[in-house]
């Protein structure tokens, strides 16, 4: 089974991160990916740009509306994600290992279409 680990956090906290702190975060994410690969989880995923660069396309019947930003007002934004091939308990275990001091990680099964 595949699981998405959706990483949410407050983007405004990133404004004060030093380049050295950013490097430490990236090293920690690389270690996470290496562990997932070593354990045969075929990790994939990406970091996302700020919600200031996002647009939302909303569907109402046959019409569409495009608005700036994410779909909902919230203090936490989706900042990135991993896709792991493993069982549910292992996905939870790995989510707990993500290098985060604030925010949340949503673990959600990925639908597989055959």
List keywords for this structure.
four-stranded antiparallel β-sheet; two-stranded antiparallel ribbon; alpha+beta; about 110 residues; 6 strands; Alpha-Beta Plaits; about 25% helix
Description:
This protein has a four-stranded antiparallel beta sheet with strand order 2-5-1-6, with helices on one face. The model has no long low-confidence stretch (mean pLDDT 91). The two termini are 13 Å apart. 25% of the residues lie in helices and 34% in strands. With 114 residues, it is α+β, with helices and mostly antiparallel strands. It is built from two helices and six strands. The chain has a single domain, classed as 2-Layer Sandwich (Alpha-Beta Plaits), CATH 3.30.70.
Radius of gyration, CA atoms, in whole angstroms? 16 Å
The low-confidence runs, each spanning 5 or more residues with pLDDT under 50, are none
First-residue to last-residue Cα separation:
13 Å
Residue share in β-strands: 25-35%
Count the domains: 1
Tell me, briefly, the overall form: flat
Task: Using the coordinates shown, work out and report the CATH topology.
Answer: Alpha-Beta Plaits
The order of strands across the largest sheet is: 2-5-1-6
CATH architecture: 2-Layer Sandwich
**CATH secondary-structure class:** Alpha Beta
State the CATH superfamily name: Dimeric alpha+beta barrel
Discrete helix count? 2
Quaternary structure of the protein? single chain
């Amino acid at each position: 089974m595949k699981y998405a680990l959706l990483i949410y956090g407050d983007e405004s906290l990133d404004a004060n991160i030093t380049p050295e702190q950013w490097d430490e975060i990236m090293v920690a994410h690389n270690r996470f990916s290496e562990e997932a690969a070593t354990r045969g989880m075929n990790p994939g995923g990406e970091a996302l740009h700020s919600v200031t660069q996002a647009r939302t396309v909303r569907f109402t019947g046959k019409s569409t509306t495009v608005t700036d930003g994410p779909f909902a007002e919230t203090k936490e934004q989706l900042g990135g994600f991993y896709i792991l091939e493993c069982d549910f308990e292992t996905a939870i275990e790995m989510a707990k290992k993500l290098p985060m001091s604030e925010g949340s990680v949503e673990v959600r099964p990925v639908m597989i279409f055959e």
